[in-house]
Amino acid sequence: MSLQTTMIRLPALPGVSGLAWRLLPALPFVLVLVAWTLFWAVFHPNKATLPPVSDVVEVVWARMRDGELPAQIAASLTRLCLGAGVGILTGIVGGFIAGLNRNVAEFLNPLVVFFNAISGIVWLPLMIGWLGIGTALAVFVIWNTVFFIVFQNTVLGVQLVPEVLEQGVRALGGGRLETIRSVILPGALPYILTGVRSGLGFGWRALIAAELVGAPDGLGQMIFAAADYHRSDIIIAGCLIIGTIAIAMDRWLLIPIERRTIARWGLVLDATRKS
Amino acid sequence: MSFATAPSVAAKSPGSVSGIGDAWQMLGGLKILLPFAVLVAIWWAIKAAGDIPDNLLVSPLQAWNAFVHLVTYGVMAEYASTSLTMLGIAAFISMAAGVPIGFAVGVNRYAAHALEGFLRFLQGISGIAWLPLAIIWFGFSHTTTLVIVIYTLIVPIIFNTMIGVRAIPEGYALALRSLGAGRLRLILDVYLPGALPSIVVGLRLGMGYGWRALIAAEMLVRKGGLGDLIFGARTFGQIDRIMVGMIVIGCLYIVVDRLIIQPIENLTVARWGLLQR
To answer: I need a surface site. Which of A69, A179, A229, B56 has the fewest CB within 10 A?
Structure first.
């Protein structure tokens, strides 16, 4: 029962045209824009405190054209890919080792609970001393965040695969590796993907936080540096881009992957009932 | 979702049968401590064998001394209570405001549909990303930290309350209404219990995000709190304080999660359960 998977699609009501229903989600954004514009028109706040909408649009346009914004986005995304890639890989491999062996899982569990509680930016002060400011630091922080979430979910997924299925393959003469490949991996996959999705959500947050203090560039550094010059327009633009990337990642990358997996490996229904 | 993994793991601890049960529980306690003992041994061995200077890594003994020092002088209590108070206030405000908002939005299908995307978008912008703007607006103050943590907490709470209300089968509400129940009655008897498990999930997720946002905000705002403690220690190269601070942060979060949020979750699920059997 996760935040993401409990998404519900509401059917359009008769009497409301499909178009209006589809445009409805844009309404809050429009309302915020209108309120912001009105507020600015009436009170004329200091531009450093709250810039007009047009300033934000302009700064995005200008930074896009001179290539600075794409460079910052690329820097952040590269770090995310590196950190999350290593985190997912180590999390899955570690999760399988622990999930397949009860003793290992029981031994590691307290450590995992503890290190999950301090995962991510809590390591920042210590790691700045060890790794210096730069990509290695950000990658470490993301790895640290993603790893524990993927690890925990993989262990759970592996442990929840019904033993009957495993025995079935064994009885038909499948070896250990064959069992893992054809039963446990597909059985655990939905859980692993939930972990990956949730991990990327935490990882993206951790990356922005890490970049605020521990990186020479990237979106987090961009908005933090902007605060020094009271450039609210850059900060707001940065925040909007951060949100857009998070949404885009979830919608166009993670949800399709999850859907395809569920469609292909039907085990997920069984697994949800068990959890 | 990752947080859902915790209860099932915790539930596997040996059951308590009086007499033999106590012995079992002691053994269970040792089992939990053993991995940490191994970890500390490795930590100590690395420190001793690698001849690492104190400004990179301290020994467990030095960390312990720093901990005792911080506790006896009351420094730790001061920093920890600042963080916990912040988290408590933020959680209270977020629940008090977020749940009613979630309900108001959830009972109306148009409002729910309209806000879903917007809330998702807000959730994509982590609270910490607003920190620079909050610093401009509220200065380096507790208000800044509080605003960031409340923002981080309230979005998942509103979202999950809304989802929880929407997920209640319409038949229940219709049944009560046909028996003459009013709006308030409907909320108390159908929507609140029905949405509660989802609300708790939102709270738990929010706390996970919120605790991290709190530490990060404290690091940058530098007005007290455990984040300030470890980030301030960095400036003076006090690795012992950093490591002690990290351990305390981890322990406090586990205490908050296991002793406050998880019991609530277990109670809710057991009572109004999603459990079918």
So the answer is: A229
Whole-structure pTM over 0.90, yes or no?
no
Q: Are B151 and B261 in the same domain?
A: yes
Whether residue A20 sits in one domain with residue A63: no
B5, part of any domain = no
- From chain B, the residues in CB contact with A114 under 8 A are 36, 250-251, 254
CA distance B249 to chain A (A): 7
The answer to whether residue A10 sits within a structural domain is no
CB contact under 8 A, A126 and B257: no
- How many degrees, rounded to 5, is the angle at CA B151 between CA B203 and CA B142? 110
Q: What is the distance between the alpha carbons of residues B107 and B166, in angstroms, rounded to a whole number? A: 7
Contact between B207 and A94 (Cβ < 8 Å):
no
Residues B41 and B124 occupy one common structural domain: no
Which tens digits make up the pLDDT trace of A150-208?
Answer: 999 999 888 888 888 888 888 888 787 888 888 888 888 888 988 998 888 889 988 99
Lowest mean pLDDT among A18-22, A69-73, B11-15, B272-276: B11-15
Q: What tokens appear for A76 in the block?
A: 């952040």
Domain that holds residue A91: 52-274
Give the number of other CB atoms < 10 A from CB of residue B177. 14
Residue A205 has its nearest CB partner, among B1, B126, B249, at B126
Q: Is A166 on the interface with B (CB under 8 A)?
A: no
Q: Are B40 and B62 part of one and the same domain?
A: no
Q: Is A208 on the interface with B (CB under 8 A)?
A: yes
Three-class secondary structure of residue B182 per DSSP? coil
Q: What's A99's domain CATH number?
A: 1.10.3720.10
- Is B62 part of any domain? yes
Torsion of CA A89, A94, A99, A103, to 10 degrees: 180
A-to-B residue pairs, Cβ atoms closer than 8 angstroms? 206
Domain assignment present for residue A158? The answer is: yes
- Looking at the structure, tell me whether residues B33 and B116 fall in a common domain: no
CATH of the domain at B190: 1.10.3720.10
Give the mutation candidate from A16, A118, A153 for the B interface (greatest B CB count, under 10 A). Answer: A118
Quick check: B249 and A117 CB within 8 A?
Answer: yes
* A114 inside domain: yes
Nearest to residue B166, comparing CAs of A66, A247, A11?
Answer: A11
**What total number of domains does chain B contain?**
2
Residue among B85, B125, B121 nearest B218 (CA): B85
Domain interval for residue B120: 55-272
Interface of A with B in 236-255 (CB under 8 A): 236, 238-240, 242-247, 250
The two tokens of residue A181 are: 């490949």
